[in-house]
Each structure stands twice: as C-alpha cells, then as structure tokens.
Write a structure and sequence with these properties.
216 residues, mainly alpha, Formate dehydrogenase/DMSO reductase fold, two-stranded antiparallel sheet
C-alpha cells in the first residue's frame, strides 16, 4: 500500500504534493535568466559599457534560459500536448502568455548571444544587439509577470494570492543572479564590491516586499 506524501506548510493547511521538483526548478532557472537579461540590457545600453560583465551575464542568462523549459516540459507529464497552448488559445489565462513569452525570450536571447560572439570574432560591434537586448528585456519582463501571476491568482492559497508574490519572486531571483555573477567575477574585487552593494539593495527591497506581503 503506497503512502501519499504530504507537504506540511507553516502558513497553509497540509496538502498533497502538487508540484514535483521539475516545476520548482523552472521557477528557479527562469527567474535567474530573466533577471540576467534585464541586467544585461541595462549594461548594454548604458554609456560606460562593460563588455566582460555583459558577456558573463549573457552566459548565465542563456544557460538558465535553456535549462528552464526543459524542467517545465518534464513537469507537463504529457509533453506531446504542449501544442495545445497554440492550437487552442485562451488569452484570459496566464498559461498561453507564458507559452508565447518563453520561446520568444530564448530566441531573442540566443540571437543576442550569437551576434555578440560573432562581433567578438570579427572585432566589430553590431548595432542590432541593442534591439535584441531590448527585446530580451521586454520578453523577460513578460515572463516574470506570467510566472508570478500564474501562482498569485490562485485564490485557494491565501499565501500566494497577492500581487506582492510577483515582486517577491523577482527580488529573490535577483539575489541568486547576483550571487552567480559575483562568483563569475571573483578575480575583480571592485566589480564584486559593486555587485554586492546591488545585491544588498535588492535584499532590502525583498524584505520590504515580504513584510507587506505577510501583513496582507
């Protein structure tokens, strides 16, 4: 006789396991990828262009962006049905929007990375990367909104049912991204220090959001 696993949450009633680790991995990786894309776009458009930092940011973004949909596809259980999102659109739901934003995000991010690497080999910069960076940032914003709202619209889970949940997910993902970037630039102490300041700022904002979230 098999026993059902039960999740014992602090702020919610006990419940059966509804999400396997695949879904959690998707949230983890897509959050990092989206935050990296936003940060990379900021680096690319600012006047003092840090090519090395942008390159590392893009590498983190693309790696996580490729990994995230693999975890999401595994969570679908019947992966052959993914095309239903496109064949039977339901624009009033957040799910089909995610099915739109995710491939576009990976496409723009991949093109940005490819064009930039091509420019490095040719020792020449391409102006199209600015628009690819902007497109990546816009689709990243859409992904963050979709990922947060697909959870926060669940009224049956009072802890989730809040707009603050979206911001909490964003700032928590930002912490992980900055941590990865700090490790990646371990030989540049000055850059590490600046990243640590940004990480601390994001952490303080996360604390504010969580306080508002918990207070209702």
């Amino acid at each position: 006789m098999s026993q059902t696993m039960i999740i014992e949450e602090v702020l919610a009633r006990p419940q059966e396991v509804s999400w396997l680790p695949w879904a959690v991995q998707y949230f983890f990786f897509i959050g990092i990828a989206a935050c990296a894309a936003l940060f990379g776009c900021l680096l690319h458009w600012r006047k003092r262009h840090d090519a090395k930092l942008e390159r590392l940011t893009l590498l983190i973004a693309l790696t996580c962006a490729i990994t995230a949909p693999l975890a999401l596809t595994a969570d679908l259980h019947q992966t052959a049905r993914f095309w239903h999102f496109y064949a039977y659109p339901t624009p009033w739901s957040w799910m089909p929007w995610g099915a739109l934003f995710l491939p576009l995000f990976i496409l723009f991010l991949g093109l940005w990375f490819a064009v930039r690497q091509s420019g490095l080999l040719r020792n020449k910069s391409d102006s199209v990367t600015k628009w690819l960076a902007l497109a990546s940032a816009l689709t990243a914003t859409g992904l963050l909104l979709y990922t947060g709202r697909e959870v926060s619209v669940v009224q049956a889970r009072p802890v989730w049912f809040s707009y603050a949940f979206v911001l909490a997910m964003f700032f928590s993902a930002l912490q992980t991204f900055f941590a990865l970037l700090i490790v990646a630039v371990r030989n540049d102490f000055q850059c590490q220090r600046q990243l640590a300041i940004w990480q601390l700022s994001a952490l303080m904002l996360l604390a504010v959001v969580v306080a508002i979230w918990v207070s209702g």
